[in-house]
From TrEMBL:
One of its GO terms (molecular function) is phenylalanine-tRNA ligase activity. Tetramer of two alpha and two beta subunits. Binds 2 magnesium ions per tetramer. Its cofactor is Mg(2+). The lineage of its organism: Bacteria, Bacillati, Bacillota, Clostridia, Eubacteriales. This is Phenylalanine--tRNA ligase alpha subunit. Keywords: Aminoacyl-tRNA synthetase, ATP-binding, Cytoplasm, Ligase, Magnesium, Metal-binding, Nucleotide-binding, Protein biosynthesis. It comes from Ruthenibacterium intestinale.
C-alpha cells in the first residue's frame, strides 16, 4: 500500500508538471484527489491493514494528498501567469505610434450666419424668441390681417394639416403670441423653420428659414426702422454697404417697404450678381399695421412698432457665393467642409 501511494505521488507529480492548461490540471485533481479518485480508492482499503500499520499509512496518505494539492496549486499558478504574460504581450500597445486624429466637426453655414445675426441683434437689445412650427390658422393669418379671402392662404401655397391647423408660413405667429403675452417695450427676433408648398429648385425649398424682427414701444417711427436695419446690414456685410427702401405692400404693415443693399461684389456699379442693378433686395419691412396691434390688445393710439422679415437662405448664399440652395440641405461633407 505504501508502494501504491508512492506510485500515485510519482505519477501525479509527473502528469501535473506536464499539464498544459488549467483545465488539464483540474482533470488531474479529479483523477487523483476526487471522491472517486485514486487516492480515495486506496484509503478505502485501509480497513484491511493491521492496527499498527494504519496510522503509518494514514500519515503517508495525508502527506501524498498535501503534496499533490501543493503541486496542483503551483502548476495552476504557473499556467495562469503564463496566460497573463501571453495576453499582455498580445495586447501590447506601441505608445510611440502616431495617434488617429478625431474628425473635427463644425457648424453648418446656416448656424454660423444665424449666430452672427443673433449677436448683432442681441447687441442692440433684442431678445431671441421661438415658437411652434405647427400653428393655428388664427395666429399664422387671421391675427396678421390676412382674412379668409387672402391669396396667401390658398392650399396651393400653404401646407394644411386640418382646416385650421397648418405649418407656419412665416415666424410672425411667434411675434403675435409675444405681443399677446407681453407688454411693450418689445424688442425681439424670431428665427426658425417655415414652410411653403413650393417645388424644389435652385432658389426654392418647401422648408426654409426666416428671421423676423419686431419692435413695439411708444414713439417708434420709420426712422427707428431705417436706423436699425441699416445698422444690421452694415454689421453683417461691412460698413461700406449702402441701403435704400422701396415702397411695397404687406397686409400686416403700413406703410411697407423692401430694403435693398448696394451690391457687395461691384459696390453698386452693376455686375452679374446684381444683374446690372447695383442693388440687391435683402428684406421686407414696415410699420406694424394698427389692426395687428389692436388684435393683440395693444392700443395703436399709444404704441407703434416696426417689423421685418428676412430669409436666412438668401443671406447665407450671398455671404458665401453659393448659387444653388439645394447644396445647403444635402449635407454633402465635401461641400460643407469649405465653410
Ligand atoms: C417678407 C418680409 C415681413 C413682417 C415680415 C410682421 C410681423 C408682425 C407684424 C407685422 Cl407680428 N409684420 N412681419 C413685416 C414685414 C415684412 O417679411 O418678405 N415677407 C413675405
Amino acid at each position: 500500500m505504501k508502494q501504491a501511494l508512492q506510485n500515485i505521488k510519482a505519477t501525479a507529480d509527473s502528469l501535473i508538471a506536464q499539464a498544459e492548461s488549467t483545465a488539464q490540471v483540474e482533470e488531474l485533481r479529479v483523477r487523483f484527489l476526487g471522491k472517486k479518485g485514486e487516492l480515495t480508492a486506496i484509503l478505502k482499503q485501509m480497513g484491511k491493514l493491521s492496527p499498527e500499520e494504519r496510522p503509518v499509512v494514514g500519515a503517508l496518505a495525508n502527506e501524498v494528498r498535501e503534496a499533490i494539492t501543493a503541486d496542483i496549486a503551483a502548476r495552476t499558478k504557473e499556467l495562469e501567469q503564463a496566460a497573463l504574460a501571453a495576453r499582455l504581450a498580445q495586447e501590447e500597445i506601441d505608445v510611440t505610434l502616431p495617434g488617429k486624429r478625431p474628425v473635427q466637426g463644425k457648424r453648418h453655414p446656416f448656424e454660423q450666419v444665424l449666430g452672427e445675426l443673433k449677436e448683432i441683434f442681441l447687441g442692440m437689445g433684442f431678445d431671441v424668441v421661438s415658437g411652434p412650427e405647427v400653428e393655428q390658422d388664427h395666429y399664422n393669418f387671421e391675427m396678421l390681417n390676412m382674412p379668409k379671402s387672402h391669396p396667401a392662404r390658398d392650399t396651393q401655397d400653404t401646407f394644411y394639416i386640418t382646416e385650421n391647423v397648418l405649418l407656419r408660413t412665416q415666424t410672425s405667429p411667434v411675434q403675435i403670441r409675444t405681443m399677446e403675452n407681453q407688454k411693450p417695450p418689445i424688442r425681439i427676433i424670431c428665427p426658425g423653420r417655415v414652410y411653403r408648398s413650393d417645388a424644389v429648385d435652385a432658389t426654392h425649398s418647401p422648408i426654409f428659414h426666416q428671421i423676423e424682427g419686431l419692435v413695439v414701444d411708444k414713439n417708434i417711427t420709420f426712422s427707428d426702422l431705417k436706423g436699425t436695419l441699416e445698422m444690421f446690414i452694415k454689421k453683417l456685410y461691412g460698413e461700406g454697404i449702402r441701403v435704400r427702401f422701396r415702397p411695397h405692400h404687406f397686409p400686416y404693415t403700413e406703410p411697407s417697404a423692401e430694403m435693398d443693399m448696394s451690391c457687395f461684389k461691384c459696390g453698386g456699379k452693376g455686375c452679374s450678381l446684381c444683374k446690372g442693378e447695383g442693388w440687391i433686395e435683402i428684406l421686407g419691412c414696415g410699420m406694424v399695421h394698427p389692426k395687428v396691434l389692436e388684435n393683440c390688445g395693444i392700443d395703436p393710439e399709444v404704441y407703434s412698432g416696426f417689423a421685418f422679415g428676412v430669409g436666412l437662405e438668401r443671406i447665407v448664399m450671398m455671404r458665401y457665393g453659393i448659387d444653388d440652395m439645394r447644396l445647403l440641405y444635402e449635407n454633402d461633407l465635401r461641400f460643407l467642409k469649405q465653410f
